[in-house]
Design goal:
Order of helices and strands: HHHEHEHHEHHHEEEHEEHEEEEHHHHHHH
Number of domains: 2
CATH architecture of the largest domain: 3-Layer(aba) Sandwich
CATH class of the largest domain: Alpha Beta
Low-confidence stretches: none
Number of helices: 18
Mean pLDDT: 90
Strand order of the largest sheet: 1-12-7-4-2-3
Length: 401
């Protein structure tokens, strides 16, 4: 466990909680109810998935429905072709696919354009939160890593850190012709891709000649209205803001009908949009007792309140930085029970602070335990681990002072 990372993590989480306390979206109870209804309708609904794909194609997009991770990587590789520089925006699905690492091994230059993800890429570090990937790193630690990478002094002032990383990102954006993004939602009725962001980088990435959208089949929503409702809940729980700074709704390539009302495509960028819809065991999970796991919108509010996560940080997470939910999901889609599931305290705070009230604790118990006696063992073991690290943290505070 890295003591400094845990302290930085707690500080960042406290900031989000303070923002949440200042103001919440109006009629939150009804918004959560609508979100739950839309997730119940769409997750595992093959008919809805088919309608979505059909409408995406009608809007002029090329769509791939992909079963396995390897197939998704091969399709993306084929769509990239001979291009060498790829710009990306933040996406948990591409992290699941390990896309950046895969492309770099193939000789491509892949540049993450989100400031946090670019810092992680440069420092070769793991993310700590789905919407705040570097919350566990102090400015001092980041500045040290960037100074080594850029071979020039970088101060520990956040403004200076953002400035130098932003300059790096902008320089690479100019040279790229292919942009890869994720998606927060794909709407069935409209056949639209919806992406929310705060930095503005997604806008630049999606305006390349070819825009490749990599997302998963559990991101389907009935329509734009239900998607905007989800984004308000996501934004509030992730950052404390009522709505993200930017919401991109993409319903086809650029086109015009200004001359004699004749549609001309490819007026500006992008001239081609590729949608890669990844299954990767989601259909199996949707048909199982763990279906609710796919309802998750990835806000990360569970992590803000998880006592184990706030004690040992990234020790209680997978590369997809989704804490207990990520551990449960990883165990299901890889058929390999993760040892870190033993760390769950079964306190239920994740469910109490989830906008969908997902019982992640209950799912973890089902995955890790064969019977009551085994679960009692894990319960005692997890609390012993938690108490040990709590004492460790307190001793470090005393010694630091």
């Amino acid at each position: 466990m890295n003591f400094e990372e845990v302290i930085a993590l707690r500080k960042a989480f406290r900031s989000v909680k303070e923002k949440q306390a200042q103001k919440s979206p109006r009629d939150m109870g009804n918004k959560k109810k609508r979100l739950r209804e839309s997730r119940e309708l769409c997750v595992g609904n093959r008919e809805m998935l088919g309608i979505t794909i059909e409408n995406l194609k009608k809007n002029g997009m090329k769509v791939y429905l992909v079963g396995e991770k390897k197939d998704a990587l091969d399709i993306i590789l084929n769509e990239i072709g001979s291009e060498k520089i790829i710009v990306k925006s933040k996406s948990n699905v591409t992290k699941e696919l390990e896309l950046t690492r895969f492309l770099e091994k193939k000789g491509f230059i892949v540049v993450e354009t989100d400031i946090g993800d670019r810092i992680l890429q440069i420092l070769n570090a793991k993310p700590s939160h789905p919407t705040g990937p570097v919350t566990h790193l102090s400015a001092k630690e980041i500045a040290k890593g960037l100074s080594n990478y850029y071979n020039r002094p970088v101060s520990k002032e956040p403004e200076d850190i953002v400035k130098i990383v932003r300059e790096d990102v902008i320089a690479n954006l100019k040279n790229a012709r292919i942009g890869i993004t994720g998606a927060n939602a794909i709407t069935a009725d409209e056949g639209s891709i919806v992406i929310a962001h705060n930095e503005g980088n997604v806008y630049e990435v999606m305006r390349k000649e070819k825009h490749i959208v990599v997302t998963s089949i559990d991101k389907i929503y009935p329509d734009i209205e239900s998607t905007i409702n989800m984004l308000k809940i996501l934004s509030y729980n992730a950052t404390g803001a009522i709505i993200p700074s930017f919401v991109e709704i993409i319903s086809g390539v650029s086109k015009t009908a200004d001359v004699e009302k004749k549609f001309i495509k490819g007026v500006h960028m992008p001239s081609e949009i590729i949608v890669v819809l990844v299954d990767n065991k989601r259909s199996e999970i949707a048909a199982s007792e763990f279906k609710e796991l796919l309802y998750c919108i990835g806000c990360g509010n569970c992590l803000l309140h998880c006592p184990m996560y706030n004690t040992i940080g990234n020790e209680f997470a997978m590369d997809n930085n989704l804490g207990g939910k990520g551990l449960a999901y990883h165990s299901l889609y890889t058929d390999e029970k993760d040892r870190k599931l033993e760390f769950c305290l079964s306190c239920g705070k994740c469910k109490a602070n989830c906008p969908l009230e997902l019982d992640i604790t209950g799912m973890i118990r089902k995955i890790r335990s064969k019977d009551v006696s085994t679960e009692v063992y894990y319960f005692l073991k997890s609390h012993a681990i938690w108490m040990y690290y709590q004492i460790f943290l307190k001793l470090n505070r005393v010694l630091s002072n």
